[in-house]
Amino acid sequence: MSEATTLSRRSLLKVSALAGGGFALSATMPMVARAVGGEAAAPAELTAFVTIAPDNTITIIGKNPEIGQGIKTSLPMIVAEELDADWDLVKIEMADTNMAKYGPQLAGGSFSTPMNWMPMRQTGATARAMLIAAAAQQWGVSAASLSTEPGKVVEKASGRSATYGELASLAATMPVPDPESLTLKDQADFRIIGRAIGGIDSPKIVRGEPIFGVDMQLPGMVYAAYERSPVFGATLKGADLEAAKAQPGVIDAFVVRGNGNPEELVDGVAVIASNWWLANRARSALKPEWDNGEWASHSTAGYAAKAKELMDGGQAAEVFGERGDMAGALASAAKVVTADYSYPFLAHVPMEPMNCTALMRDDGVMEMWAPSQTPQGGLTSVANYLGLPPEKVIVHITRMGGGFGRRLNNDYMVQVAAIAKEMPGTPVQLIWSREDDVKTDFYRPAGWHRLTASVDAEGKMTGLKDHFVTFDLGESPFNPALMAPDTFPAKLMDNLLLEQDMLRTAIPMGALRAPNSNALAFVTQSFLDEVAHETGKDLPTLLMEIVEGAEPEPTTMGFTGPTPGFNPGRLRAVTRKATEMADWGKPVADGHALGFGYYWSHQGYFAEVVEVSLSDSNKVQVHNVWCAGDVGNQIINPFGALNQVEGAIIDGIGQALQLAVEVEGGAVKQSNFHNYPLPRMPMTPQIHVEWVKSDNSPTGLGEPALPPVIPALTNALFALTGKRVRSLPIDTSSLFA
Amino acid sequence: MAITVTINNETREIDAPGDMPLLWALRQELGMVGTKFGCGIGMCGACTVHLDGQAVRSCSLPLSAIGDKKVSTIENLAQSEVGQALQQAWLDEDVMQCGYCQAGQLMSATALLNKNATPSDDEIDAAMQGNICRCACYKRIKTAIAQVARNEETANV
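Predict the joint structure of the above. Result:
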């Protein structure tokens, strides 16, 4: 297991290295890959992302996987803006997986917007410059005398104009300009960016057209179900293949051997049928025997007991963050505040169950239709597993029924490749049941924290200590569980001590929407609310004290390009805005209370206020959420942006109120939506969102609105009941204890 | 052992066992993939179709139980005035994120408005609570339904 997750980290680094190179690539590549001197009647490819047809239709490539975050609409909007396209004539086509042509293609980490903002503007501006150059040549005038209006090049002096469609084939022969020489538009002149534009696939969706991965249909296609051990880390001893083959509709059943890496392939039995329901039903005849090794004794209750033992034992195994003199701060403290916090494993459960379609072609190419957030990583994994060169694997990217981080891991891609390899010439669609999905996820890791704060005689917080119990990755904790010294508020503490212990596990772990932050926001913002309460102030006031005198951190070169560091001014601005919106500090309705939470993640600053009450049946009711967010100076598509924030807030409330994955006997207890109860319509609060614009390039919105709503909710429950919620999901009965 | 079912006003012969749920016959025997698989136990509503106008979960409806009743799916929704109005409202409100559950949401919403053209807030909640949207577009789904209901109200004044 630890080897497997190490591999995953390494592949993440690999992606990140490629992505760094991809930055240059995506800036230069569009100019290289284009049709040369196309025929007049044919569409002309001006850049890798822009093709223009004689009838003025502009096809823009959507490069990154669409999981519902709206990126297939918003990135082409950026291209179209700088191209000065007529949006009504724009068509969007989904790219195939192709790092060399399109640069990094991934849906994760809210990376797509910051990573592609500049390259997408440049590719649009490049095509526009080539269209202008073509008109200049045709008319024998200087390019400087020409400008554009949506869809055409115009010469103001003479009043003549030519449409992009008329100019496209000549434009495709023009020299490719140096991206640095391009003049990009002023924000004030934007005509497409900033417009509320509906999702590009939405008309197809409301008509039920086949656009998701699981909708893929190929002639002669068969369906596969995959039986694997419910106990993580188990290996297959045997199964009754003949019994499964005797079931109605079953075409074949065979053993697939894993490679020891759950991110690629674990042992299992493939059952193939003409209809997936028949294949899945035949699984019950397999009666497989598993070797569970040491893992069947593992349980989440066991982990929790061990975590408490370790925290009670005092000194942790490892100190991984230290500043100043925490022991001294505690010794001289006028007041010490300490509390234990914990949160459970969580599953992703996107609505479209895991699936993938594969065809081992006669020419030795593995062709796949993959709903994957990381199709380039999936392509590499499949090529490695099959021992094929990467150019012998083709991965078409399909729209996905949700991601939430689940589809960053491509185990289902390797599974179907391993099955299709055994059936050359026959297309195979692998589908997981919901039970497969809930029971064999890459879970948000559970975690345990014992937090201690020192407070001086003036009521000022002087230091923070955290004894953290997390899960083992060989020598380091699993990444999305990391409590790093540069997180807030640790980064601003004069005295800091971060210690950790690690538990061994075989439970696969992964990134869930706003990884790290979805847990740490709850822990740190709830604990700071405790400190604020103990020192007679409210949380917004304490946050202002903590950032007092702090300078903005410098911009560094990060995964997505130039990345501004933490800026206390942005924290102040969203905090002020959210508290104003909620009338914070003013009386609220009888039996209601407000709570506040703030977090900075994925480059976005969010402050949120939650209004709660308890119903007659002692259920938590969230009435209102006021949210102020700063994701830079420009909202690209207000429709999609608002939708992301509303969804993230309800997602966070659902996690806090009712979601946990428990393990017993080495296997997950939960199995489907009856015992993993997602939020439903009746619990939807009123959500009020305002944008705080700051002088930064736009950044992503898939994640950063989620983390603060959880502590805002638990802090509101404290304000209402005087009881602290220190463990998720919220145990409502504890509020009345 | 072919089973005869009326789907979207057409008579279809399905060569499948009688205990096969309608969902899997629609998707993989007839190639009508607009109706979605979400949970297989009737808990999420992604597979909602109409059976004689009632919203039912096709993942839990065996072919043998359909008999003479008429099945209508998302592919046929635009044939009804209410369905078409809801489809338009879904686009006007930019309801969806991933969109995977929306066929089921639209089928449930249409069944609701066919029965009750001007539902209250609580009645919308009650009729729609069987449909999960993992992206949590609930606020917009509700607004879109209320929009169509309001237009209905105005038309009747």
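Residues 1-39 of chain A have pLDDT under 50 and may be disordered.
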